[in-house]
Amino acid sequence: MTFLSTPVKNAITELSTKFDTPFFVYDLDTLNTHLARLVAQTEVKLWYAVKANPLSSVIQRLDNAGFNFDVASKGELEQVLAQGVNSERVLNTGPAKSPKQIKHFIERGVRIFVAESLNQVRWLNEQANLQNCQLQVLLRVQLRWPDGEKNPLGGDSLTPFGLGCDEWQALNTSNYPALSFDGLHIFQWGNMLSSDKLAQLWSQMVAPLQQLASDLAIHLKVLDLGGGLGIPYALDAPTLSWDALIAALAKIKRDAGVKELWMELGRYAVGECGHYATPVVERKLNYSQQQVIMSGGINHLLRPAVTNQDFPARLLRDSNAANQAMSLYGPLCTALDCLGEHQLPNDLNEHDWLVFSQCGAYGFTESMPYFLCHELAREYVIQNGVLTCVRQAEDASYYLR
Ligand SMILES: Cc1ncc(COP(=O)(O)O)c(C=O)c1O
């Protein structure tokens, strides 16, 4: 993994001399290059899982690159439409689609839905009838594997995402004339870093999915494999090979006999474009452990506390000092506010800044900014080499009532 490109490093260094609170920087130039590579193939239709980063300028880059959009809430839908995206390019996934939400989505022009329960199928049909339209529907399937691995997306555990094949057997598709059942959706494994493992999981899915489609008399036109493509969070971890993935996906497409293969990418699309920088407040030795206390922590980057997986951290300034293990803590009064143990130069001190990479996905909006009334983090973008502030650091009076 490369650390910081020169434009990003220069931008963060400049900002660190002006401000004393944490901020995010998203490198949209690097993002553009990455997205151009992802769309340069014809095997898989790509959707952007907006939950990864709903920032308007990020959505605009995905739109320009030709991605479609997977939204899981009214807020995400409105944010995507506000960027000028046509609702025909929007797909709705998510376990909590109430009749009211479905009604709103149809009113706003959305026609493609992933149904996660028998009730959702019924409500989709009712709302489509009321608004006199036809919807394209994929059924979300939850499979079980014998090796029983766990994963933030559930892996082999029971989750509320979709239904098992046995439960879907109760569906009689002919009872829902307003719905075109065009395929199946399956996604149970997040942040996978091996294309072989992904290919193996995907290929195990083909037979049970084909069987389910045949049981339900669904012509399997579309297979949606969700997200799950990983990015390395450890400095020495491997990166996925896009070419190997496309080859694996082409095989799945052939084996499953589907006309269209879809994926909704979050982390793999935008994760690497984001960086989070925070000042160091102090360093102390405690029970022989080097502890670094920072201005920002899980109030701005919650993910390490919920997944036990740290974002890679580096010292912003160059240092020739030898590395030493240091535990990094944020400002919240909970032991959960720890961004991990990292090897950092042993001259690190209270005048320094730390930079966390891979923060473009599941960063700012996946966090807990209100606890303890600290500032919201600033957000910046670099586009065509120009640094622009897209969010000021709001202090707690902004959100306290
Ligand atoms: C339905 C769905 N699709 C796609 C994604 C994006 O996953 P990833 O970030 O692994 O690409 C998610 C993430 O939770 C999801 O719930």
TrEMBL record:
Q: Where is the Orn/DAP/Arg decarboxylase 2 C-terminal domain?
A: 23-360
UniProt domain Orn/DAP/Arg decarboxylase 2 N-terminal: residue ranges: 42-270
Its signal peptide is: none
Where does the record place the catalytic residues? C333
Give the N6-(pyridoxal phosphate)lysine positions (modified residues).
K51
Q: Name one Pfam family in it.
A: Orn_Arg_deC_N
Q: What are the protein's GO molecular function terms?
A: diaminopimelate decarboxylase activity
For biological process, the GO terms are: lysine biosynthetic process via diaminopimelate; polyamine biosynthetic process
What InterPro entries does the annotation carry? Ala_racemase/Decarboxylase_C, De-COase2_C, De-COase2_CS, De-COase2_N, De-COase2_pyr-phos_BS, Orn/DAP/Arg_de-COase, Orn_de-COase, PLP-binding_barrel
Report the cofactors.
Answer: pyridoxal 5'-phosphate
Which keywords are on file for this protein? Answer: Lyase, Pyridoxal phosphate
Q: Which family does it belong to?
A: Belongs to the Orn/Lys/Arg decarboxylase class-II family.
Its name, as the record gives it, is PLP-dependent decarboxylase
Instruction: Supply the source organism for this entry.
Output: Pseudoalteromonas arctica
User: In the record, what lineage is assigned to the organism producing the protein?
Assistant: Bacteria, Pseudomonadati, Pseudomonadota, Gammaproteobacteria, Alteromonadales
